[in-house]
Amino acid sequence: MTNKTILVLGGTGKTGRRVVSRLAERGVEARAASRKGAVRFDWDDETTWAPALEGADAAYLIPPTELGSGELFSTFVARAEQAGVRRFVLLSAREVDESPSTGVQAAEAAVRASGAEWTIVRATWFAQNFSEDFFAPSIESGVLALPTGDGKEPFIDVDDIADVVVAVLLEDGHHGQVYELSGPELLSFAEAVALISEQSGKDVVFQPVEPAEFTRALIADGFPDDLADLFAGLLALIRNGGNAYLSDGVQRVLGRPPRRFADYVRRTWG
Ligand SMILES: NC(=O)c1ccc[n+]([C@@H]2O[C@H](COP(=O)([O-])OP(=O)(O)OC[C@H]3O[C@@H](n4cnc5c(N)ncnc54)[C@H](OP(=O)(O)O)[C@@H]3O)[C@@H](O)[C@H]2O)c1
């Protein structure tokens, strides 16, 4: 599909911008779409959908962040098919069945029900959450307080997600596949933070907190109740050992092991 046009939703985000730059390096026309992207796309403004879709053959999809927005997503998938999109690659979460309220489960159902080729990429927690997303301010402040206890997580490097997504967008043979992606090792948050502290030279510590205390603190910080419950629920899964297993999606798609967390830390803070 190398002479095709590929729509990349969330084109300014952690995975999307990496997908766009990899596609551009291969000479593929990649359309970075988001509210502030090169191509304007807004889930909340349907007038932006058709121009973003025009002429696209394939699409990388990130579901909208609104909780329970399955209907909006399936409407978009139908419009994309009508516009001629023949291949969907959807970013999902490995814990999708444990958190159905996110709308990600509905997004998976929508691409499965489409008449186009589809592939679902289910990722574990991103390593880059520590440097580019919600854990970054805590790392900067020196204390990451979470209710994850000694629970372990196989953080996935977002560069591996982008490599997998690009392969699946460009190669044939991935239709109907669900790839679960994790890093190559299990780490507790205390271990992950210790690696960051050691490499960066910053004094950063992990502080265990009780789940109820954590949820109360989120709500006090202005998080809506449902988002606070969702976040705390996902972290509870880690605390209870529910995420403490490895997945082989990177190896299956790319024929190589995933990047190690320590490599991410060296690239980011070295
Ligand atoms: N973080 C994790 O550990 C993790 C793990 C597994 C799965 N996931 C999934 O990853 C997805 C997020 O992907 P990501 O991390 O690559 O993105 P991200 O870094 O969170 O960035 C979000 C992207 O969506 C765009 N966006 C936000 N609101 C929008 C709107 N109303 N309309 C159109 N675009 C909008 C943003 O750009 P603009 O601001 O320019 O619009 C940005 O490009 C989520 O679905 C999450 O469930 C995350």
Automatic annotation (TrEMBL):
InterPro entries: Ergot_Alk_Oxidoreductase, NAD(P)-bd_dom_sf, NmrA-like. Residues 3-228 form the NmrA-like domain. Pfam families: NmrA. It comes from the Bacteria. PANTHER family: PRESTALK A DIFFERENTIATION PROTEIN A, PTHR43162. This is NAD(P)H-binding protein. It comes from Saccharopolyspora taberi.
